[in-house]
Design goal:
The chain has 326 residues and is an alpha/beta fold. The chain is built from 10 helices and 15 strands. A hairpin with a 2-residue loop joins strand 11 and strand 12.
Length: 326
């Protein structure tokens, strides 16, 4: 096989992922690859879009022409590696992944079935229960309202939600009734108290989990983590590895969210089959996901020590800006 020397990486809905994009660019260069980054976003002023070599101001994901526009960019730009970073278009990429692979574009996306399980919180709950993972009890709003003694507080959210939209805590029956009317596709969960963790899991192209990095969330701003710290919590790492292997998610990074309760129970609340917003912390701590994924794309089998990353590394984010001349 001829040695690959060039790579074109495509980030659809690239948004604000400047740090992630730059780490792919930097590591691709270090691996001796001539790199071209293509980005698309519906907002012409997306910060990360300005950092791309080719920029496309594209239709919104909800537009019926979105898929066709994206596929035509992939074809025209001869994209080698596709990296989705938002929930909105994961189902589209999952549907097209086999076709894309055949045409020479590797997509870091799970199968349609896995994406469906992850994006429907009712199915996530069923999956977790079936396989014996601890997770907050989840029922429909109607079931919750018909109970004689519902447990309070309880947590309300849409089963197809993302970015913490439509999330409420109900403390009594009146609040439960009020919010359940206002939250579309509402489900009601047992409210979990504890420390929240986000876990980055690297899955290779053979479906094997290669590295797992828990980060404890300290502060969240506008739905994205702003303060966090890496924690080598072995039980969380083992649970997440087992979960991903049973789910058969990947390839790429899968981001799992869970709570560690005061009595040390790990309760899984969400599985996002994509790069999470806080992944720069895991990368900085030494889990060099961009490098390992690029090496795998090159057909190499990188040696990965799954616990060789820095424990206790803190990330404190602040506002940075991208400057460009209009
Ligand atoms: N059952 C729960 N108990 C307490 N807090 C929760 C619960 N479910 C979710 N949360 C909080 O709400 C946030 C968003 O919920 P999540 O299930 O991740 O949905 P999404 O990110 O898709 O909006 C979580 O990061 C967590 O802080
Ligand atoms: Mg979430």
């Amino acid at each position: 096989m001829a040695k690959k020397k060039n790579i074109t990486i495509f980030f659809p809905c690239v948004g604000r992922r400047v740090v992630l994009l730059n780490s792919f660019r930097r590591t691709a260069r270090q691996l001796g690859l001539t790199t071209r980054i293509v980005g698309a976003d519906s907002d012409q002023f997306s910060p990360a879009l300005q950092c791309c070599d080719r920029k496309f101001v594209a239709k919104r994901v909800s537009h019926p022409g979105y898929t066709r526009e994206m596929l035509s960019i992939i074809k025209r730009e001869k994209v080698d590696l596709l990296i989705p970073t938002v929930d909105l278009d994961l189902a589209i990429w999952a549907r097209h992944r086999t076709k894309l692979t055949r045409s020479g574009c590797t997509a870091l996306i799970s199968s349609p079935k896995v994406v469906q399980i992850c994006q429907d919180k009712r199915l996530t709950y069923e999956f977790l229960k079936t396989h014996g993972f601890d997770t907050p009890k989840t029922i429909s709003a109607r079931q919750a309202l018909s109970q004689n003694r519902p447990q309070f507080p309880c947590f309300l959210k849409p089963w197809d939600g993302h970015a913490s939209r439509g999330n409420y805590i109900a403390h009594n029956r009146d609040e439960l009734r009020f919010y359940s009317k206002h939250v579309p596709n509402c489900i009601v969960q047992e409210f979990i108290n504890g420390q929240e963790y986000t876990v980055d899991v690297l899955v290779d192209f053979n479906g094997h989990v290669r590295c797992t990095v828990p980060r404890r969330r300290i502060e969240v701003r506008a739905g994205e983590v702003s303060k966090a710290v890496t924690v080598k919590h072995l039980e969380i790492m083992q649970l997440c590895q087992k979960l991903i292997q049973i789910l058969k998610a990947g390839p790429g990074i899968i981001t799992i969210q869970c709570f560690l309760t005061d009595d040390n129970q790990v309760k899984i609340i969400e599985i996002n089959p994509r790069f999470g917003g806080g992944v720069p912390l895991a990368i900085k701590a030494g889990a060099n996901f961009p490098k390992w994924l690029l090496q795998m794309w090159l057909g190499q089998n990188p040696k990965i020590n799954p616990t060789r990353w820095r424990q206790g590394l803190m990330m404190l984010r602040y506002d940075e800006a991208v400057w460009f001349q209009k």
